[in-house]
Amino acid sequence: MNDLAVKNEFGKYILSDLGDRKAYISTTEKLSKYYMVKALKRDAVFIQSKLKTLHVFLESNFNNLNDFLTKLDLLSEFLEEKNSADFSKFMGKYFLSTLEKEKAAILTIEVPKISYKFDNPYYAPGNDMLLRFAQAFQKAPPLSALPESSSTDTDAGKVPAPVKKIIVVTPADPMAMPGKHVLERFTTDFASAAVLDLSKKEKSVETSVTKRVVEKKTSVVTIDASDMPGLILLKKFGPLFHGAPILKEETEEDAKVTIPSAVRTISFQMYVNITNKMTRFSRNKDQNGYKQWYITLSKEHRIALQINNLINKEKDGPVQWNAFFHKITYMEKIDVMLLERIKFDIEYYKILLIKIKTTFQKAITQGEPIAQVQALYAPLVKLLDLASSSEEKAITLQMTLLQLSNANAKEYLKTELLKLISEFDSRR
């Protein structure tokens, strides 16, 4: 498939593997040009000469997404940058934000090209071929496969294997399709065939079918429900199942979090943005500003703020969630399953923010400057929400961490943040 964009299981358009590669290459090209201008301060002639061959260089040497992380030294050498560490830090600082823009730009162009495949309920891949070759198929005579002896095997004592030879049979009706001939030929057999009775072992299925085809008599087989395999098991072992105690041992499957079936509507980035803005209004005691901002929010985002406030109040005592959900479903005409999903996500986002804060604090104690660690916060929030595979997120995370200077802190953050990415993706 050559499409640069596809629709994922959540109904959202994302880039395909081919689209991701295109985004990574265009991101690297833009950052390389910017680096030559701002950091290396090369003249226009030098920059243009490098840009002419940069695309071919990336296509030839960067064969997968991981290469954009592991082959930065090679790219630094191509740009004639002697200090590859400086170039890596630069890429780590700007890669994610630039990549995000490139992906959005590609989707803007590509989605209209492919939306008919996903948004047209009557579209099927074969329709393209049907529309293109309909007249040719309509005029073509049906094919018939007949066995023909092979004369290629001349060894003595060996029976030649039959070989099927495709020959064209011209029907009386030149517009008739092959399926029509099959239907006309066997309609009576199909109509008179009885339901296969597989419960009696002594009867050969093949013999039963042959007999019915030859006799061509209409018959109806009544299947006794008591003969169904599941009911036989139930009758035999029912009392055992009924009397069995509930297992107390928790399995790995049981330990997994039960995720509401509704699709996530409040992203982590959106949650962080609206709660931060609400906090600023509260800190500045700007009631009028808050009211004006609140009415601009979507229905889901207003509900998210209400749920967030109620979760905060739980530390003072129980919250009547059922009453709240009943009220909101009536007033806002919103499904209760969606409300449960919003609550589920916000509760996790609160825990996630605490984990991120704790991880960052530990990295600072290992020697990484506070400003450098804090600079990771915004990219990390964006990274978690990316509609990408965990593998791509891991690569992008490591690209972002290149801007750090302390090796121990960098390794610690890589380990802990990869765990958070995996945890986050498992709760989609």
| Overall pLDDT score | 79
Secondary-structure class: mainly alpha
| Secondary structure tally: strands | 4
Question: What percentage of residues falls in helices of 4 or more residues?
Answer: 55-70%
Backbone shape: flat
Strand order of the largest sheet: 1-2
Amount of beta strand: under 5%
In the predicted model, the low-confidence regions spanning at least 5 consecutive residues are 150-154, 200-223, 247-251
Q: Which sheet architecture does the biggest sheet show?
A: 2 strands, antiparallel
* End-to-end separation: 26 Å
- Work out the radius of gyration: 33 Å
H/E element sequence: EEHHHHHHEEHHHHHHHHHHHHH
Query: With helices defined by DSSP (H or I, 4 residues minimum), what is the helix count?
Result: 19
Question: Please, could you describe this protein's structure?
Answer:
By secondary structure, the protein is mainly alpha-helical. It is 64% helix and 5% strand. The protein is built from 19 helices and four strands. The chain has helices at residues 17-38, 44-61, 67-70, 72-78, 84-119, 125-139, 178-192, 205-215, 229-243, 252-255, 268-283, 287-294, 299-313, 321-332, 336-365, 370-374, 377-385, 390-401, 407-426, and strands at 5-7, 13-15, 143-149, 162-168. A two-stranded antiparallel sheet has the order 1-2. The protein has a two-stranded antiparallel ribbon with strand order 3-4. The radius of gyration is 33 Å and the shape is flat. The two termini are 26 Å apart. Residues 150-154, 200-223 and 247-251 have low confidence and may be disordered.
